[in-house]
Amino acid sequence: MKGQSPRVARWLCEPLPKDVAASIKRLVEADDVLHIAVMPDVHLSGDVCVGLAVATERLLYPAAVGGDIGCGIAAVAVRATADLLAEGGAAARLLAGLSRAAPPMRHSRVTMAKELPSALSENPLSDSRLSRLADRDGRVQFGTLGRGNHFLEFQSDQDGQLWIMLHSGSRAMGQAITAHHVTIAERLSQRRKLPYLDANSAEGASYVADLAWAIRYAEESRLAMLRATEQLLVDQFGIGLDWSTLIHANHNHVRRENHFGSDVWVHRKGALSAVEGEAGMIPGSMGSVSFHATGRGCKDALCSSSHGAGRAMSRGQAAETITTRQLQREMQGIWYSARQADRLHDEAPSAYKDVEAVMRAQRDLTRIERKLRPVLSYKGS
């Protein structure tokens, strides 16, 4: 790999749009990029597309991780079948309760965490301003869902077993950590486009340490929401979760891995680690199926897979072209908050690619273990 032009390996379910191809070309020409794996859910997002895995020897590109550091998915089985939510009254009560168990934006003073988990509070961030933000916004937003494509969904597998799938990230903390280190990277690399940090420098080490903090924050936040949802299920239905079934993975990170006989930095932005036998989840949209899967360890893909279906339309395009009536048609048979329909156009199923086509395109990257259909979808939009 070293000294050669970067190799670009692709797993596509449709031709690349021109703007996506141009974005990947810019990344090919960036310093120290050794290998790029393009996932079938690839779509435009800032300077680096979502749906890529990128290997470098020593340089760290914050844009190739994204601002929502540690964004990921957790799934766990409910000790019940999907029949639990067959009746509208039960679904309505659950939706109302979820807005308190997993608020979209921030907790109230009554429900907010008094302090962050010790694993976070005992590990200071690299800058005092970030630490102050963690003590303020970090506490208020811990255990909150976020908006956009983040969701908490109840799903049924082929046997009728009820599952929860939860997608969320590091909230304001990830964005602040990224912005802080991008400013440093712009100054040191003297680049406004694709600024970088040297992993062997003090600044690079600080970014890696703060990134690990944000990943842990996102992981602990997802678990906090699952525990709050379990208490809601106990209170409303007298049932809990089967924690032995927990699957938990993130798809926005950079970490040191060995590929092609060398230790490299692998950046994943909207790409799931898919080492042989590694468990993960690949959601569709709020109206389509999702999958539990295990990795096949494909070397050319940097042992990665897609992290979801991927957007077929930008949020702006979807908001302009998809009507409330169309969204309602696409969501037939799935419980969701109809009062939010006017604000969910950009999350309509038709705004996303066909997740089954995505799975076919990456059959050598990941194997399907379980197929799930949505029963109830809760979003913060």
Structure description:
This protein is of the alpha+beta class and 381 residues long. It has a single domain (7-379), classed as tRNA-splicing ligase RtcB (Alpha-Beta Complex), CATH 3.90.1860.10. Helix content is 31%, strand content 28%. The chain has a seven-stranded antiparallel beta sheet. The protein is globular, with a radius of gyration of 20 Å.
Supply database-style keywords.
single chain, 381 residues, alpha+beta, tRNA-splicing ligase RtcB, seven-stranded antiparallel β-sheet, five-stranded mixed β-sheet, 9 helices, 31% helix, globular
Task: Please sum up the structure shown.
By secondary structure, this protein is of the alpha+beta class.
Largest sheet: 7 strands, antiparallel
E-strand count: 16
Relative strand content:
25-35%
CATH superfamily: tRNA-splicing ligase RtcB
Number of helices: 9
Oligomerization: single chain
